[in-house]
């Protein structure tokens, strides 16, 4: 299985960073100009971006990627999978949160990917790693 991992420190408390990254709208900031829109709410009305929620991603009216939140452990871990994509056999995103101290949080973002076409997975993962690294660095500067 091909995978990539990005680690980013945020100068903010664990709870603040988790709340920020548990919201689909935050990813529009992280991955601009790509837009991320929730199209299905989670069953939990207190956390509409939680387990079972679905977001679509793309630019303008074209948003071909759909991801569904499959696990949400508050202040610890978020997992999601790409759904309804004929080009991808397996895609699992894992975002883990760890307090370094009271005002510093380490976020570890891992993506496992297996595309249906050979050799495509590594290319996609390299692009994702670059986008996530740049997006998280930019986001970390805005969080305090």
TrEMBL record:
Gene3D superfamilies: 3.30.530.20. It comes from Acinetobacter lanii. It holds the Pfam family Polyketide_cyc2. CDD domains: PYR_PYL_RCAR_like. Signal peptide: none annotated. InterPro entries: Polyketide_cyclase/dehydratase, START-like_dom_sf. This is SRPBCC family protein.
């Amino acid at each position: 299985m091909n995978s990539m991992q990005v680690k980013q420190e945020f100068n903010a408390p664990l709870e603040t960073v988790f709340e920020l990254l548990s919201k689909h709208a935050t990813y529009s900031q992280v991955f601009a100009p790509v837009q991320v829109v929730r199209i299905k709410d989670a069953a939990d009305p207190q956390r509409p971006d939680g387990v079972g929620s679905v977001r679509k991603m793309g630019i303008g009216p074209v948003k071909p990627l759909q991801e569904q939140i499959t696990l949400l452990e508050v202040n610890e871990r978020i997992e999601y999978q790409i759904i309804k994509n004929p080009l991808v056999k397996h895609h699992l995103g894992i975002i883990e949160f760890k307090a370094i101290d009271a005002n510093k949080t380490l976020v570890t973002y891992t993506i496992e990917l297996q595309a249906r076409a050979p050799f495509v997975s590594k290319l996609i993962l390299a692009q994702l790693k670059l986008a996530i690294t740049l997006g998280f660095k930019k986001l970390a500067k805005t969080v305090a």
